[in-house]
Each structure stands twice: as C-alpha cells, then as structure tokens.
Give the backbone structure.
Amino acid sequence: MYRERSAAPERATLAAGAAPASSPTAGIDLPAPAGEAEEWPGRRHVLDLDDFSAGEIARVLRTADAMKEILGRPIKQVPALRGLTVVTLFYEASTRTRVSFELAAKRLGADVVNVAAASSSVTKGESLLDTAHTLRALGADVLVMRHAEAGAPYVVAQHVGCMVLNAGDGWHAHPTQALLDLYTLRERLGRIAGRRVVIVGDILHSRVARSAVWGFTKLGAAVTLCGPPTLLPAGELPWPVAVEHDLDRALDGAEVVMALRLQRERQQAGLLPSLREYVRLYGLTAERLARAQPGAVVMHPGPMNEGVEIMPEVAYGAQSAIADQVTNGVAIRMALLYLLGGGAV
Amino acid sequence: MTPPLTATLGTSLGGWAGPDGERRSTPARLLVVGGRLLDPAGGLDRFADLRLRDGRIAAIEPRLAADDDEVVLDARGCVVAPGFVDLHCHLGEPGYEDRETLATGTRAAAAGGFTTVCCMGDTNPRLDCGAEIAALRARAAAAGVVRVLPIGCVTRGREGSELAELGELAAAGAVAFSDDARPVRGSRLLRHALAYSAMLGRPVVEHAVDADLAEGGLVHEGPVATWLGLPGVPAAAEEIAVARAIALARLTGGRLHLAHLSTAGAVDQVRAAQAEGLAVTAEVTPHHLLLTADVVRAGPDRRPYDTSTRLDPPLRSAADAAALVAAVADGTIAAVATDHRPQRQVDKDCEYAYAAPGATALETALGAIMELVVAERLSLQAAVRALTSGPAAVFGLDAGRLAVGGPADLVVFDPDAAWTVEPTRFHSRGKSTPLAGRTLHGRVRATLVGGALVFSTEC
C-alpha cells in the first residue's frame, strides 16, 4: 500500500473508543498517484480553495477515484469512518448538497446527524457559535456548514474544536462544488491545465463561481468570466481571469462552459432590465454552444432554471456533464471526509 | 537631583486617580523637567521645563530649578505635548454601559494621552435635549478622569425628521451637533441644520455616506470584497455625501465638519472647499490612516473575516490611506479623531455581517499615528498637531496648547517605546481592535488634566 503520511493523529483521536472493526483503509482501493506532486498537510478544515495548493487538489481528486469505485460496488459502503460523527448544519435550504454530504458520510460508515437551522434562530438569539459549541459538546467531529453569510464557517473553525467543511457560505465559497467540477472535467477531458473555461451568469453573487475560479486557475486553466457588468464584481479582481460581456465572443474557442443559476430577484433589485433580455444575451442555447470547440463540456451547479440561463436541449444534450457533476459530488465529499478524518493513504 | 519618573509618580501622586474625583486632590506645585516640549499651536519644539501651579501652567523656561515643596516629574527622553483632544468617541452612557461607561471610557482616554474627549449623542436616551446634555456633563464630572464634552444630536431623537433644539443643546454645553452613524437623510434638513447652527457658532458633524448606495455593504468595494464574497461599500458612497454636504455648506455659510473620512476622493473635495474659503473641516481615524481593507482578508495572527476589522466607514485601499495621511500632513484634515466605539464581545464573536461595527481606539491612537511617524510618512509635529491644536480649533475649544496661564492639560509620551497591543489590558470595556497583537511605537507615560495626574505607566 502506498503510504506517505507518517502519522494520522486526527484519525487516531477520532477513532478512540470507537474501535473500528477493520483498518481505516479497509475496502478502499486507492489508485497509484498519477505523477502530480501531492500533498495534504494535516488540514483540519476545508473552507475555500484559495488556500489549496495544486498538490492538495490532486490528492483530493485521486482519493475521489477510490471513492467512486466504492460507489460502483453492489454494497456501497466501507467502514473507514466508523465512529466518526458528522453533523450537517444548514442555515439555508438545500437538497442536493445536503443529501450528497449525508450519503458521502454514510458510505464511509460515519454517523450523520442533519440539523436544519432556520435563519430565524438568529433573531431568537441563538448564535451560530452557541449552536456550534453545543453540537461539538454533543460529540460532533466534523461540521458540514451551509450559511447565508460569507465567512460564517471561518468563525466556527476559529472558535469551536470541530473540523469544518464549508458547504457554501453566502457569496463567498463552495469548495466541494469546485472540486467536483474539477473531478468531472478531469474525467471528461483528462487534463485541465491550459483548458479554456467560460463561466457565464451572475458571478457577483455566486460562491460557485468564486471557488471554481480558484480551482481552475490553480490547475492552470484559462478562465473567462462572462455576464452583464451589474452581475460582475466591480473594479479590480483578485484572480488572473479575463472578463467578457459578450457571450458569443467569450464562447469562441471555449472548451468548458459553466452556466450559473440566475436568481429572479436580481431583476427586482435593478440589476437586470428583464429576464427576457437576460435570456437573449446570456442564455446558453445550442446555437451559442456551437461557437465553442466541438465537444466542449457543459456544466451547471444546479438547480437549473431551464429556459433562462440554460436551454433544456443543452442541459440534457450530449455535451452536458451536469448529471455526472451530481454523481461525482458524492465521491468528492467522501474523499474530503476521508482525508479530514485522517485517511492515511 | 531629579528622582525617577515612576518613583515620583508612584509615591507622590499615587498613580491612578479614581473615578470618585480623586484628581481633585491636585498637588498644587508640580515641575515637569527634561522633556521635549512640542506645542504646534505655539510653534514650540524645544527642550524646556514646565511649572504647574493650581491646575495651570505657571512658567515655561529652558531650565527651572525645583522648589523644596515641588513634586518633580522627570520627562527626559519623552515628548511633552498638550493633552490630546478627541473630537469623536462613544462612551456608552447613558444606556449602553455594557459597552463603556464614563469611568472606563475616560480612563481609556487618559491612558491614551487624551485630556479632552467629545462624546457622541447616540446614547439611550439620546443626547437630543438640554437636560440630557446637562445630565451627561454632571455624570462625567463625577465619574470621569478627563474633560468630557458632549455632542448633541442634530435631529430630535436622532430620527432624521425634525431639528433638535440646537439652541438649548448649545446653551447646555453641546460643542457640536451630529447624528453620527446616521447621515442626515434629507438634504433640506441638513441645509436647515447648517444654517441654524451657524448662528450658534457650533459645527454640524456629518457622517458622510450615501445610505442608498452603501446599503448592505460591509467592506470597501474592491478586490478584498470580491475575494471574500462580502458586499462592498464603494468609495463613491462617501464622495457623493461629502459633495452634498459641501454644497449645502456653501449654500448656507454654515460650519461643516466631516466625520471619519475614508476616501481619497473626499479628501480632494475638502481641500477644494477649503481653498474656496468654505468653513469645512474634517477628521480621520487612526485605523483609516494605518490600515487598509487587506486586513479583513488576512493579517498577522488574523484569520479572514476577523470582525475587529468591521468598521464604519470600512477600511479602504492603500491609495486612500496614503491620501488621508497626506491630508493630515498638509492640514487639510485638521484632526485625527478616534471614533472610539467599544462593542461587547458577543456582538463581535459572530458572522461578519452580523458584527457590530466599531473598534476600541482611545488607547491605541497615539501608537497607530506614531507608526506613521516612525515610517517617516508623517512628521511628529503634524501628528501632534492633529491630536491637539487641530481638533481644538475645529470645535473652538480652549484646549490643545501649552500656554502660560492656560490649563495644565498635558501628555508625556515616549515616542520611541515599542509595545504590543494586548486588548485584555485595555481600560476600556471594549476589547475589539484591528490592531490587536501588533507592535506599535509611542507610549504614553503620563497624562495630566488640570495639573492632576490621571494616568501613568508603572514600568
């Protein structure tokens, strides 16, 4: 077995008293490294991809390969995280991300508790930290957090002794989404470096876009952000990306097109004249997609507004990787839970 | 022979003055020797001794010999300057004693070298009538260790709909009028406030922000806001409001003072208004001079989203900070004002968006400004001017200078002493500061109000 970590202190701590029936790596068949330099320097939290190295991303993706293999078995479960308690703490409604995390944790044998915290608990005086401290005291090892405000997982990571996995915070970050996007693309295209990626839509309010930009640029892809000026961050950007307001021009030569969900309230806020005009300028149609390279991969983080940012024939067409994104999400989240849980592989 | 400073202070003066009016037990005869006297108002910058008698400055001479019964304060290696004047702080009382009290806030002021502080009227109840102003002054006289001058509300209840009784406020002792943290929303009302207050010789202090443009904003609009996914406040939100206020000052001939400027564009407008001869003044906080929005993302010993960086207005770009420093250097911005705004820790230990804006600042103001002096971005003379005669002139206060016959309000500070900001040691109840953990230069050794020692370091 390939081993480069000398110690797995977290796992040892977490498993104390739980006495797993088999070794932590039982049933996990990890492929050999593909040649990229990999690392996983004792990380305790996954909050954003801005502090990930390309080597850490490579480690996650390779680990996800092993997880995907498990998902293809008749019995889709291994006991790697037996005794680990994972709590999903969601302050925002979510179906796919929460279910994806829950399945990921269960596939690895962890105990999972789901907490749907109404945002009204804030007004009732229940603070985020109070809730997180309580969950920790109840035995939570990993908190998977979704919150409407940017930075909320950082507060918990700083003050509470749990490992924190960000499942989306405000406009800021959605690192597991970005990793599953990278994983899906690697499956489809092999290499990511040098690929021309277009992200189109409401960049300003999108945590998916922010994390995707970090992931793609760290792996060497050339990213173009596309949308109306009112839906792009104003002024100087912190990333090495291009900006293009004309979707047709942006798509010219693109190898990956990621459409983002448009919230309908953006029109009421005065950011858009009308949905109709948005569809006309930024809706991803089959004709538009034809401007990209043949076989360009179409992605969407979901949930989709079919007929708005993406047309059904594109979303369900041959170039679409959207269903794969959802499937791969479970493998990526398994990989992260496994690595956080001290997977010594 | 001169006894060492600490021994002198410790034995003769008992260190701290208490909140019970202990400072009234002024030693009648005090001599400050060996310090570098720096009084920008009097054009004084030389080594000299000061004789204090009955709370006033009796003599300033190159060398003064101590009388037998005179207590000697050794200021060698230190700067002796007029006590600092803060035009903008929040002292909690009445109503928010869990954030600050007059006792703790004025001790914090004394520890920071301030001898006169002007407190905002966003209390509960508001300082929007003569009785509240009088009550605050009485409480401050009893519980405070430095001079406290209240700023009355511009509008009744700080609601922004009708003028408060500005004449009564002034008569009761309000030195200026402000609805700080709330810009006067209606341009017509701000016009009337400026016109009416001109008659009273008191400025209107405007928190200049276009509330509509700034709505929901938490940090400076720019790369850091984009990186962190936090809604931004564009510089234009301040520039628009400054332009409006200056236009109304021109229209009315009123006295306009702009609170805590944060943008280069606002500085340019103030400079132009002053060149035009308008009665427009401005202040800046030490934080906006020294720090930029970058600290919201990361800093020494700081994680992203550290709520101690949540200020109103937000910390801005390096270009903005440079323009603000230049404006203090050339006098366009007359005052460094602390905007000392203590918050409870529970109101800071939370999501960035829910964190109460504001930082504790009185005890770190000198250190922050001296960082600029040490970095040779600001002269010591300009720094001291912006803490003394500059602010005193803005509100027309009899303070901020060293003059024979004038009040013996002064600060003795070591300009070179390095120290590390440890909020747990603050006298203020508020422990949140974006400077926590930083090493600053410039340390207050002693603060005297009316000749009485209200602070000294025991080191």
